[in-house]
Amino acid sequence: MQFSQVYGLESIKKKLIASVKANRLAHALLFLGPEGSGKLALASALTQYVYCSNPSDTDSCGECSSCRKITSLTHPDVHYSFPHTGGADGISDDFILQWRELVTKNKYFNITNWAAITAKDENKSPNLNIKEVRKILTKLSLKSYEGEAKSLILWMPEYLQGQSNALLKLIEEPPQKTYFSLVAENSDALLATITSRTQLIKVPKYTEAETQQFLIDKYALDPQKAEQIAYLSEGNFNKAVELVESVEDNYAEMFRDWMLACYSNNLGKVSTLADSMHKLGRVQLQYFLTNGLSILRESMLYQTIDNYQIKAEKGQQDFIKKFSTTLNASCIEKSYAQINEVIYHIQRNANAKIAIFNLSLQLRYNFIRNK
């Protein structure tokens, strides 16, 4: 991928290119930015610029052998590591074909998109295991196949957890001409020992205007439609793409029914809905709950800000308006925190059915106290 194919972020591109030209590029970079930002695209473009045989002052050539191989994600000296659902014996190489296909299609995807493609069992959460770390150490200890440099692009290092300690020595004292590009979203989930050994590149979220123009360029959307989607996506290119391409689902309707069942103290309906949510699978359940958080957030903002314009599809706006007038701000805030906590536990393999039913009881209690 060339820098010209990375949307916006011109100041960051110039700094990275200047570092390469001055031979002062740090051996370990941490591209940190929110979901849907250009962090993975930047890491890919930088890697291609480093390997390019005929780079210009502003970009890689895009035509040499190295550029073509990196564009197709097949360069033998550029390695990719990412969370996967292969269990204790799985490694990223087992999923490299799916990785190439997804990255080629959309460089702004999130962990839920990736898990939905690779998980044979919906209840398996992605992970970076110790076998993956050992494979990284082996790959980077070998002599490069072409040229002098070896590179690792590590996507979502937050999923390393305890296994990251095995990488510390290599990152701190890497072999000659070895580069690390860590691409992360949540700095709080990264170990301090990792962040302290990398140079931070903060990648901001896109503005509403940039998102609108991106949609017009990519999909030839009507400017008014692009503006509406840009407003809803809040600078998240992945969310913007999903809003354009997504198939209709009933998550908003299911969330509404769930909230009404909790509010009306209908435990039979709550139990039925909890079963339905559990059947979604662990990955889709997180997506469902995250959508629910957006509805609660909009309810809170609509209740507390005069003339607030709700960021939601038209079909959801009536429910959000009614919901915000039914509950007080304290109740919405407490419910938001409880749902967020359940998402955290489901990501860590908690029993989803029990977690959802227990959450329903907590929400019911919140709503009863609100009355």
From TrEMBL:
It comes from uncultured Flavobacteriia bacterium. This is DNA polymerase III gamma/tau subunit. It holds the Pfam family DNA_pol3_delta2. SUPFAM superfamilies: P-loop containing nucleoside triphosphate hydrolases. GO terms for biological process: DNA-templated DNA replication. PANTHER family: DNA POLYMERASE III SUBUNIT DELTA (PTHR11669:SF8), REPLICATION FACTOR C / DNA POLYMERASE III GAMMA-TAU SUBUNIT (PTHR11669). The lineage of its organism: Bacteria, Pseudomonadati, Bacteroidota, Flavobacteriia, environmental samples.
